[in-house]
Amino acid sequence: MDVLGIDEITYGADDLPTCRQFFLDWGMTLAQESADALVFESQNGCRVVVRSSADPALPPAIEAGPTLREVVWGVSSAEVLPKFAERIKDLPGYLNDGKRVGCTDPNGLAVRFQVSQKREVKVECATMNTWNEKNRINQRSPVYDHASPIEVGHVVFFVKDVRACEKFYCENFGFVPSDRYPERGAFLRCADVGGHHDIFLLQPPEARSGLNHVAFTVRDIHEVFGGGMHMSRKGWDTQLGPGRHPISSAYFWYFKNPAGGLIEYYADEDQLDADWEPRDFEPGPTVFAEWAIDGGIDGNTRRQKNAQGPTGKFLTDRQPTHK
């Protein structure tokens, strides 16, 4: 297994103070800070860098406005880097500085590879009781006050040519297709064994380059809920969620991100191996979400946003009526 997952992402953004507060509320740890850059870390050391859009050191943007400028993938050992370098040395934007090897993908995005800097972490996760298996005895499921993301789990981009992008990642770096929207979308994972997708490439009807979202892995469905309601209490806007994806089985909650695109909490995605055979799906709302709440859940009332919350101690309480 050469590529292990995402090690680092870099945004180019216009409002660093707002981004600073957003990622702190998101549950990230602020590791470094300067006038023109912020560096956050997840639980396992996966890094999120936010730099000023005007920073000349940033790779070119794939779209106007705040957006993702670079994705750094972690590899299993130093021996992988020269192998990748040989494959991509003639591609646009080729870079080899001794620590990172990379180039520009067909969509215009700066792609880099480095020996993974992430660390192993152990977290306590909820267990679920099903009809066949009773794994939780004399123990309640957790309720989280906020989320603490474990890592950046996947990235999703709008692309101009989904075939070219899929070929780029699979032939050069060993990515594997999990599922597809024929001629429209490709879900790719880093290796045969792993979560459903590490990158999703989506070619919209009017093909264009852009960031759709960045997804952060949390430990279980309860942390998706707890993190989402915390963000709601902090005043950040839900785009969609909570909900569940039928293709990957993951639970999700999407928010609007001041650093660009959308941002997602997710948990409980399908785990695949070499025996998995990619499926074809026709895009549509019910393919995207088995169920979803539009506008999110209010963190204070614990009800759908803008819905009237309960007024008594029990749901059966009734307000007196006056004649």
TrEMBL record:
Region of interest: Disordered: 296-323
Pfam families per record: Glyoxalase (PF00903)
InterPro entries: Glyas_Bleomycin-R_OHBP_Dase, Glyas_Fos-R_dOase_dom, MMCE/EMCE_epimerase, VOC_core
Residues annotated as domain VOC: 151-268
UniProt KW keywords: Metal-binding
Name used for this protein in its record: Glyoxalase
Species this protein is from: Herbaspirillum hiltneri N3
